[in-house]
User: Fold 3'(2'),5'-bisphosphate nucleotidase from Coleophoma crateriformis.
Amino acid sequence: MSTYSKELEVAELAVQRATLLTKKVFHEKAKGTLSKDDKSPVTIGDFGAQALIIQAIKKNFPNDEVVGEEEASDLRDNHKLRDQIWALVEGTKLSDSGSEDILGGPIKTVDEMLDAIDAGNSAGGNKGRIWALDPIDGTKGFLRGGQYAVCLALMVDGDVKVGVLGCPNLPVDDTAPLTAESGVDQTDSEGKGVLFAAIAGQGATSRPLGTAGLEKSQPIKMKPVSDITQAIFCESVEAGHSSHGDQSAIAQKLGITKASVRMDSQAKYGSIARGAGDIYLRLPVSATYQEKIWDHAAGDLIVREAGGEVTDSLGNRLNFGVGRTLAENKGVVAAPAAIHSTVLEVVKEVLSKK
Ligand SMILES: Nc1ncnc2c1ncn2[C@@H]1O[C@H](COP(=O)(O)O)[C@@H](OP(=O)(O)O)[C@H]1O
Ligand SMILES: [Mg+2]
Ligand SMILES: [Mg+2]
Ligand SMILES: [Mg+2]
Assistant:
């Protein structure tokens, strides 16, 4: 077996299983939404997906740590919500029993489920094997009917080695270009659902999300951009998550005339990695916000392995080894390697004028 192939297999299957759970919640009107301390939303889908994925990691790699976005404290005294999540977790299995076996068997009790969720409490850092998990990235998109992603990455000594993104609402077809509609009013209808993956040094791939381990992955590559004015650039839907104003000024200076594609979650990284889009800009709106490692780890590797470069707004690589946040970085600039320096120059120019 080549390096990290076992980790990739477990990560892909765990993400695929978790998306079965999130898809069920996506189609429910009531998604069991709570407001967290920072006022951001979390749903029964986020908790359930985190439990299923951490269980699979701990069964296969008991000594590994996990930096997971969610924690179970709100559930320990909210039995109604806890039981709703348990019903989902208990009822979610991959249809292929061989794939289910690889994940190491079901969660047996409610307490085991809560403990699995809380096992995502690693402080992170640059020593040893640590997984970064975002059980639903783009929760606001998930609630609005936009894009969302189930995101998992393995870091070893602070470097991302394996990355997986499950995107239930993106087209399976790698060649379908992004349009203004790609991020709004989306669902997981026929032809939707893609799993992106990468191992450091071994390239990036995609495969249909619905088929567990049964379908072969295809290599993906970023699209060469010969004329930057024709580039498709992506940004968050939420104006509170990145500066639409700065991003539009940068696009304008680059001569880009097409409107941005606004899309929730790391579906943006997957989309540019397969050449459906070209550039992803995420410039800070707040001077104090620190980006979370689980919002970027998998996407960073997948884009770089597909021929892209990912830096912050100063041109530094994202540093995943300093804790649960990207404390040393500000913003994200992701583009094909051949045009990244051109984009970065304009980013610096626009930000320096502020
Ligand atoms: N002020 C802020 N600046 C940047 N990112 C923020 C933010 N507040 C929340 N986020 C993050 O933005 C993520 C969604 O990114 P996007 O806008 O690309 O969809 C959220 O992930 P979750 O949805 O997992 O909580 C959350 O972690
Ligand atoms: Mg969140
Ligand atoms: Mg997130
Ligand atoms: Mg999340």
Notes: The first helix runs from residue 5 to 26. Residues 40, 69, 134, 136-139, 141, 236, 238, 240-241, 264-265, 285-286, 289, 292, 295 surround adenosine-3'-5'-diphosphate (ligand 1) (CB under 6 Å).
